From TrEMBL:
Family that this chain belongs to: Belongs to the peptidase M14 family.
Cofactor(s) it depends on: Zn(2+)
InterPro entries linked to this entry: Cytosolic_carboxypeptidase, Peptidase_M14
Gene3D superfamilies: Zn peptidases (3.40.630.10)
Entry-linked Pfam families: Peptidase_M14
An example molecular function term from Gene Ontology annotations: zinc ion binding
Annotated Peptidase M14 domain residues: 1-167
Keyword annotations of the record: Carboxypeptidase, Hydrolase, Protease
Coiled coil: none
Keyword Protein biosynthesis part of the UniProt annotation: no
Single Gene Ontology BP annotation: proteolysis
Record-given protein name: CBPC6 carboxypeptidase
Amino acid sequence: PSSAAENLRPGAEQKVVFITARVHPGETPSSFVCQGIIDFLVSQHPTAKVLRDHLVFKIAPMLNPDGVYLGNYRCSLMGFDLNRHWANPSPWAHPTLHGVKQLIIEMYNNPKINLEFYIDIHAHSTMMNGFMYGNIFEDEERFQRQAVFPKLLCQNAEDFSYVSNIF
């Protein structure tokens, strides 16, 4: 008999992967990709089981439901490009961003939670392959650590282009 998942043991540190998608309503491929991730994670695939046993996945599959409902391309119900309001999201004008940012801050301040990875899924109007934007870190180890996932993805997904990544 298998024991409880490592990330569910009382007092265990939770290693979290946080995934968001569809901040821009017109980027419909981001919903497709996010649904594929969810379908895989809840599947019986052995890799999915290992991931579930060791990581906690928090997924917000649609950050701009009002804009999607209205058929907007980039903006929310109130006309905001939500992706430009992460620095100081309003609970009234940008409630989904505000909620997600508060959750990230709570995780950051909780010593029992380690946010291992954050993915914000978008789509691009002209790029025909997968790519990632990453952060610029002065610390070489942090920079190299963030480059591991795109390198692995490039080796395992023919539609992903490492040279299109921007850090």
